[in-house]
């Protein structure tokens, strides 16, 4: 009997404990029977897409400074790292024969001037002889016409002949004078050329920049760099680094979004700094081998903080929409056949198909399906069904 009472007591205690577990204090959701879901409102915001590309800094312009004339380096004024201005003297060559060329050209001018003087004198004499011959012929002809038979025709013809000869001598003297004048022009041109070539012994900087390489030393013989095919040694290399270029291989998929003048952020990891740049130019052609379009970004470098050859990451803005309807990225559910969001309307779940626009790293543009201030679920949605009653907990719309 006692054993039966013991078993009954144990069973009763077990039943009571089980009842107590089922009657434990419920959560808010259990009390109401409604699930709490995190939501975010649909808000208007500026949204933009961008792409991060890597490029290498290059000088805005760079040139190997060659000598126009061959000669020995008499003096060199710069070395690597020196900053130079446009037109600044870099080196001076010694070309002794240049002086002889100028002297010869000056002598040729003097000789030509003397020939001009002689030709002018000869022209003067020829014109005087022609005037006398022509005057004699005119008078004789007048007398012959007035007094028929008084003067033999042969004498008239002889005077006429002397007149024509004098006239031709004038023409010859004028031609000789023109030849002398042309010879003087040639001599002056030769002198100007000799002096111009003499100016090339002074080698100057073509633009403001930095000397990044020095090839020649004092006394070195440099050849004239008059042809792109020549093996002439440069004197120095000048690089313009106050502005730098970044060559970016923009993928074909976003090439159409590139716009000249668009500002970009340029992060230089070696300096742990971000600089401002501008899309300056692009090729308007996609390379068939790489399927990319070369785009150049100009970066101002007035303090020469950035060195050519450094790598940089460029955040290239592609498209921007002002005050677009946006939702957090985690609110969008994408499948192979549809894109949708779970909205909360009148306290119940509503599955809404949407059309998306551009997106950044936090938000996505909604083109159709939602309106401003709609609430969309940002948490797990696997257990939710259309029409299910839920309670909302609004999250920070800025996140």
Give a description of the structure:
The chain is of the alpha+beta class and about 400 residues long. It has 4 domains: about 30-45 and about 320-395, conserved putative lor/sdh protein from methanococcus maripaludis s2 fold (Beta Barrel), CATH 2.40.420.20; about 65-95 and about 200-235, OB fold (Dihydrolipoamide Acetyltransferase, E2P) (Beta Barrel); about 100-200; about 235-320, Beta Barrel (Elongation Factor Tu (Ef-tu), domain 3). The protein has 4 helices and 20 strands. The strands form 3 sheets. Strands 1, 14, 15, 16, 19 and 20 form a 6-stranded mixed sheet that branches. Helix 3 (about 95-145) runs antiparallel to helix 4. It is elongated. Mean pLDDT is about 85; it is low at about 1-30.
Q: Keywords for this structure?
A:
399 residues, alpha+beta, conserved putative lor/sdh protein from methanococcus maripaludis s2 fold, OB fold (Dihydrolipoamide Acetyltransferase, E2P), 4 domains, six-stranded mixed beta sheet, disordered N terminus
Strand content range: 35-45%
- Helix share, percent: 25-40%
The unreliable regions are: 1-31
Report the span from N to C terminus.
71 Å
- H-E order: HHEEEEEHHEEEEEEEEEEEEEEE
Rg calc: 49 Å
- Biggest sheet architecture: 6 strands, mixed
Number of strands: 20
Shape from CA axes? elongated
In terms of quaternary structure, what is this? Answer: single chain
User: How would you classify the helix and strand content by structural class?
Assistant: alpha+beta
Mean pLDDT comes to 85
Count up the domains: 4
What is the number of helical segments per DSSP (H or I, 4+ residues)?
A: 4
């Amino acid at each position: 009997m006692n054993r039966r009472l013991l078993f009954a007591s144990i069973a009763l205690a077990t039943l009571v404990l089980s009842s107590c577990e089922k009657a434990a204090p419920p959560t808010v959701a259990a009390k109401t029977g409604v699930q709490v879901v995190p939501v975010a409102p649909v808000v208007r915001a500026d949204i933009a897409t961008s792409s991060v590309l890597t490029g290498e800094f290059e000088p805005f312009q760079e040139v190997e400074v060659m000598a126009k004339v061959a000669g020995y380096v008499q003096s060199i004024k710069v070395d690597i790292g020196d900053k130079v201005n446009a037109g600044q003297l870099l080196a001076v060559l010694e070309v002794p024969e240049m002086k002889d060329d100028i002297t010869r050209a000056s002598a040729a001018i003097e000789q030509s001037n003397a020939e001009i003087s002689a030709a002018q004198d000869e022209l003067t004499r020829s014109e005087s002889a022609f005037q006398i011959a022509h005057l004699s012929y005119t008078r004789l002809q007048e007398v012959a016409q007035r007094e028929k038979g008084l003067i033999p025709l042969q004498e008239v013809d002889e005077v006429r002949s002397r007149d024509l000869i004098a006239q031709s001598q004038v023409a010859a003297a004028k031609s000789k004078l023109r030849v002398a004048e042309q010879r003087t022009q040639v001599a002056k041109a030769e002198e100007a050329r000799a002096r111009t070539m003499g100016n090339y012994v002074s080698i100057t900087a073509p633009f403001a920049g930095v000397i990044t390489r020095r090839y020649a030393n004092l006394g070195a013989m440099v050849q004239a760099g008059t042809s792109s095919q020549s093996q002439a040694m440069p004197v120095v290399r000048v690089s313009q680094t106050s502005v730098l270029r970044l060559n970016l291989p923009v993928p074909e998929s976003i090439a159409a979004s590139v716009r000249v003048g668009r500002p970009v952020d340029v992060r230089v990891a070696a300096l742990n700094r971000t600089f401002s740049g501008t899309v300056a130019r692009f090729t308007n052609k996609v390379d068939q081998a790489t399927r990319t379009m070369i785009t150049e970004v100009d970066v101002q470098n007035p303090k020469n903080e950035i060195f050519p050859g450094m790598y940089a990451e460029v955040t290239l803005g592609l498209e921007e929409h002002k005050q677009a309807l946006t939702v957090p990225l985690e609110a969008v559910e994408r499948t192979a056949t549809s894109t949708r969001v779970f909205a909360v309307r009148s306290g119940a779940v509503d599955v809404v198909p949407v059309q998306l626009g551009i997106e950044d790293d936090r938000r996505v543009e909604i083109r159709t399906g939602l309106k401003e201030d709609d609430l969309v679920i940002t948490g797990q949605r696997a257990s939710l069904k259309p029409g299910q009653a839920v309670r909302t907990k609004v999250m920070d719309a800025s996140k």
